[in-house]
What does this fold into?
Amino acid sequence: MDPQAIQNSPVFRQLVSERARLGVGMSIVMTVAYFAYILTVAFWPRLLGHPLWSGGVMTWGVLIGVGLIAFGFLLTALYVRRANSRFDRLSQLLLEDFR
Amino acid sequence: MIARSGYAAFTATAVALASEPAAADALTSAGGARQSLNATAIVMFLGFVAVSLAITLWAARRGTNTAKDFYAAGAGLKGVQNGLAIAGDYTSAATFLGVTALVYTSGYDGMIYAIGFLVGFPMILFLIAEPLRNLGRYTFADVAAYRLSEVPVRAVAGVNTLVIVVFYLIAQLVGAGKLIQLLFGLPYIYAVGIVGVLMMVYVTVGGMLATTWVQIIKAVLLMSGSVLMSVLILGHFGFSLEALFREAVALHPKADAIMAPGGLVKDPVSAISLGLALIFGTAGLPHILMRFFTVSDAREARTSVLVATGFISVFYSLLFVLGFGAIAIVSANPQFRDASGGLLGGVNMVALHLADAVGGSLLLGFISAVAFATILAVVSGLTLAGASAASHDLYARVIRRGRASEQEEVLVSKAAAVAISVLSMGLGVLFENQNIAFMVGLVFAIAASANFPVILLSIVWPDLTTRGAVSGSLAGLLASVGLVALSPGVWTATFKLGPAPFPYDNPALVSVPLAFAVSWAVSVLDRSAAAASVRASFGAQHVRAQTGLAVE
It folds into this structure.
């Protein structure tokens, strides 16, 4: 198989650009979300200490913390779903073209 | 980030160490602080050892003579199995006891730390998991060596791996020794010896297959234990989280301050630095990366990350429940206090007291045995990663230049596993009473600075050259080790040399950008013929990284 020919094929280019866009995009979202949280903790800890409802002990900090953990998992699941359907189909197409 | 004292205290807790005065007293004072022998714990632990040794023999009979079997379990694991094993690698006894203890003492701050350890996992998937699986065979150095000149690249990666593995093993073994001393009343040196010998047997006899199954069983046991404890805790409070938190706030000396960030994170520079080390360090840990070679293709690699992330997310969230449960249930119970009013066995034992309080001696025995099993599984994974770097990268490729036979390579790997076990046991005994709180932070800093930039650049940047990769990696290694040596945690706290020349405990903010900058600058300036040829071969690598085509 000629790597140059594969590289020039539109399907391969599509696969590479879609994967890069999704991977880099999600990395940036995750990094921004995490550092936003850490900087909130560093500069405005009081914000996270607000109770969720008046008279309750549950704070926004607990909700946001658990939310951030869930968010990381959600992004992972979305990436896997997209990759298993779209990227694997493009790879399959590519394989058929070059066999 | 995490302010100096808080960070040190946490890492100390995280490796179940004796750096805090209270814990140190408890750990060093004689029998009084030790758990009385718990028959359930011993029976369950012996059961775990018997099952794991049976698995090791089974794995040995399946064959560990080919490199592919020994290093990568024949690359035949399912994504779910591998995901559980990755989760097992990442959830040590230190995390289980340490994070619970941190939540118990500081409340919300424990969550900040747990989140830091979680964010690295999605990053592995988004940036490197698929190309890693498509390009590598046994060690992460395979990826960088795919088109770069392999001898220098593997030499540096092999050394980085061994440094990381040995530091991580010392931290785990010292923690394990202290913990087993407390749990089972065994002398420290026997505890380290038992753990060291068992890990040596699992790895040398059973290779990756045995190590993986030990890890899977332990992960399932640890999760079952945590779920069971959480259910029992919530049962105490009518299954209302609000009631649990309300009781904890009422009993804790800091009252409602435990529901908000406290003193753990203070200055933003340290915060960002530790954040960088955690978010990119996970993607540079050799024993985690190695696991991606045990599955057959990129699709299974993705499943691995999904399962691991899900598992670890749930586990860390449960630790938060356990920590608050400990405040609400254990802190008020005089049964768990010694004469001076401190917690029996030190704060790291709080998860075990909690098990006793909610489930009696049966649950206490189970959780103690699980903690021991967890230690064994984690050190085995580390030992195997170190052994493969020593044999596959350093011996077969650098020293013998690819002329070693496969049998010879596997034999060297087994010998390396024995050597690493013996060395780390020796160092574990030597470091018994040293303050080694800095070691876990150092491991993540080296992984983020010396490994991650080179792996990422070799996958995505066509212009990376061998010289660029090697110099970037060395710059990352030297900067992270050097700055940690000059940091308050080592310079001031460990060696007592006075005020530290470098003010932050985590060097990642300096060392990670430095590694990228050096790799970039050296590659751009590299005009050699070799540089031109590796740039030209990026295309073929790119095709394989993206599609897995031509993967054996």
Q: What stands out?
A: Chain A touches chain B through 54 residues (CB under 8 Å). The helical segments of chain A are 3-8, 10-43, 45-49, 60-97. The mean pLDDT of chain A is 90. DSSP finds four helices and no strands in chain A.
